[in-house]
Design brief:
two-stranded antiparallel ribbon, about 260 residues, disordered N terminus, about 30% helix
């Protein structure tokens, strides 16, 4: 049987100069811990990750940017205690769902609203976005043994920006966003294309996500789905199968 030592995928990039202050190293680098048996499956060569609600908690920046965009474009004030059910879709879907929840009619063409949202989101600089505890350690160790990729419904430039800001971009051999391919999740296309970019096959990979969109995407792509239960979730999630589930990233480490 293959062991972790049998996989020889090198780390992509160099840790030097990364903004580790955003990576919560006070808890993540106290000691070297072994990886969970999930990562010791003989047929696993690649790990693909969703971002929002999976590796990173970005809700404050996403919802805050939506709130500022709708105010700036004249639609009105979104209550401070409002939290949308949909944080797993594309920007189009999230905008339409927030506006529906507020009782506002969304225009057929969202080009102007999206441009304003993207500008405001970029200006925030991911100030309130954090890696989930112990996610950095998982990525660091896994990048020594597997090919790692990101498949997210963020647009590509925002996916690259946030991984740069949080000091994790160097761990990924491929990063793809909602605008990278002809379709976004839950279509299987983004995940399959990300895997193809890594020169792997679907049956050789695990996909980590937190919502039904991620689970459906994985199922349609023929990829084993690993559920982060402390992410954003959604009502349809319980209908979807998963290969493994966990609440905290530290569960995937052993002392």
């Amino acid at each position: 049987m293959n062991t972790l030592e049998n996989f020889s995928t090198p780390v992509v990039g160099d840790d030097a100069g990364c903004d580790h202050a955003r990576a919560d190293l006070t808890t993540d680098k106290v000691e070297q811990r072994a990886l969970h048996a999930l990562f010791r499956q003989a047929d696993v060569r690649g790990l693909i990750f969703d971002l929002d609600g999976t590796l990173i908690d970005s809700a404050d920046d996403i919802v805050g940017s939506m709130r500022d965009m709708l105010r700036e474009t004249g639609y009105g004030e979104v209550p401070q205690d409002y939290f949308p059910e949909n944080l797993h879709g594309t920007s189009d879907g999230i905008i339409r769902d927030v506006m529906r929840d507020m009782g506002w009619a969304a225009p057929d063409d969202l080009t102007e609203l999206k441009a304003t949202y993207y500008r405001i989101y970029a200006e925030r600089g991911h100030a309130n976005t954090r890696l989930y505890p112990h996610a950095w350690e998982i990525l660091r160790q896994c990048s020594e043994h597997f090919s790692l990729g990101v498949c997210t419904n963020k647009i590509y430039r925002n996916a690259v920006s946030v991984t740069d800001t949080l000091g994790i971009r160097q761990h990924f051999a491929a990063i793809t966003g909602a605008d990278s391919w002809a379709a976004a999740k839950p279509s299987p296309v983004p995940l399959l294309e990300t895997i193809r970019t890594l020169n792997l096959r679907p049956e050789e990979c695990l996909y980590f996500g937190d919502t039904s969109v991620d689970a459906e995407c994985a199922a349609r792509a023929g990829v084993r789905f690993v559920l982060h239960e402390s992410g954003y979730g959604d009502p349809a999630l319980h209908k979807q199968p998963c290969h493994h589930a966990f609440k905290q990233w530290k569960e995937l480490l052993t002392v």
